[in-house]
Write a structure and sequence with these properties.
Blueprint: H1 3-14, E1 20-23, H2 30-37, E2 46-53, E3 58-64, H3 71-78, E4 83-85, H4 88-95, E5 112-116, E6 124-127, E7 134-139, H5 140-146, E8 151-153
Parallel strand pairs: 3-5, 5-8
Antiparallel strand pairs: 1-7, 2-3, 2-4, 6-7
Length: 154
């Protein structure tokens, strides 16, 4: 079991959070993930994306899987001139996992986290725990228990 998956399970166990997990074919987009998870839309999937400021600082943005990240809004909140999406090798270095399977917590490096509150509107959320072939399911309300001081936005 990869380090990040162990870390996620450890965090969930420490907080007494119930979760589901299942294995499936490899997925690389939010739409593919929604399909294999049997969801009507990608909205309940957590899109965890790593961005870089002009000063080279990495941040994590958690967004519904069916939405694009408003980088101008996040840059303004971050007091940055602009944000760019981190390169695949930067994502792997910062998180310990390849792009497409960045989890919302349990990463190798603690990153400042921005949370789109729309994620909290549904009952359940789904994310890849460091693997393209696994999914973890948690209650949306439990996400706030595992995130450290997320900056909320809509």
């Amino acid at each position: 079991m990869p380090y990040i998956e162990k870390k996620i399970k450890q965090i969930l166990a420490e907080k007494n959070i119930e979760f589901g997990e299942f294995q499936h074919e490899a997925v690389y987009t939010s739409e593919q993930a929604a399909r294999v998870r049997g969801l009507k839309s990608a909205k309940a999937g957590i899109k965890s994306m790593i961005f870089k400021t002009e000063t080279g600082k990495f941040i994590l943005v958690l967004n519904p899987g069916d939405r694009k990240v408003d980088t101008k809004k996040i840059a303004k909140m971050e007091k940055a001139k602009y944000l760019s999406i981190a390169k695949p090798e930067e994502v792997e270095k910062a998180t310990g996992v390849p792009i497409g399977c960045v989890a919302p917590f349990g990463l190798k490096t603690k990153l400042k986290t921005y949370l789109n509150e729309e994620l909290l509107e549904g009952e359940y959320l789904y994310f890849n725990p460091g693997s393209h072939t696994k999914t973890v399911e948690i209650r949306a309300a439990d996400l706030l228990q595992v995130l450290e001081n997320p900056i909320k936005f809509t």
